[in-house]
Design the sequence.
């Protein structure tokens, strides 16, 4: 898992660098996010992920103490936080696409690479969250059946915390630094 996290860190670092370079090198880089709804919405998404990190910590703790039922419940809570994040993120995407007319190739602000880098970065992250929820579903099912050990839950927690940590870079860089100040 550590090798996967390191290699995936390089991928996200490259995308974050590309987004940052595009933003810094272009004086016309758009600031499409109003406080309401975008910043509030993305803050709620952040809360969902941070809360799910806490539930994952509780799952690992419960499993380390041999409480499979509690560990499974905490994993289900983690999955719920991840699914809430995905639902909110898809809602944000649909608003950007249908209301703001932002696509990967164009947007109303005239900086075409904004849409491409935004959707690539947030889409890759959302894909990781979806895969993490599926992974946790497999782990949870095995925990309830008595098949996995505490180390297996801890390894799944490493992945989940990595996904949350990546969001802690995306959220300020993409949303907060691109907020309209009125």
Sequence:
């Amino acid at each position: 898992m550590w090798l996967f996290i390191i290699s995936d860190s390089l991928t996200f670092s490259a995308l974050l660098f590309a987004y940052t370079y595009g933003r810094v090198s272009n004086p016309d880089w758009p600031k499409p996010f109003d406080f309401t709804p975008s910043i509030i919405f993305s803050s709620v998404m952040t809360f969902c992920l941070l809360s799910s990190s806490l539930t994952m910590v509780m799952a690992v703790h419960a499993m380390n103490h041999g409480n499979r039922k509690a560990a499974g419940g905490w994993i289900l809570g983690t999955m719920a936080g991840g699914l809430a994040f995905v639902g909110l993120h898809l809602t944000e995407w649909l608003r950007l696409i249908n209301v703001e007319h932002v696509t990967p190739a164009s947007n109303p602000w005239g900086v075409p690479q904004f849409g491409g880098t935004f959707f690539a970065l947030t889409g890759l992250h959302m894909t990781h969250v979806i895969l993490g929820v599926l992974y946790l579903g497999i782990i949870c099912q095995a925990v309830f059946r008595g098949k996995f050990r505490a180390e297996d839950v801890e390894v799944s927690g490493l992945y989940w915390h990595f996904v949350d940590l990546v969001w802690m870079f995306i959220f300020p860089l993409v949303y907060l630094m691109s907020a309209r100040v009125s």
The first helix runs from residue 2 to 25. The two ends are 44 Å apart (CA to CA). The chain has a mean pLDDT of 94.
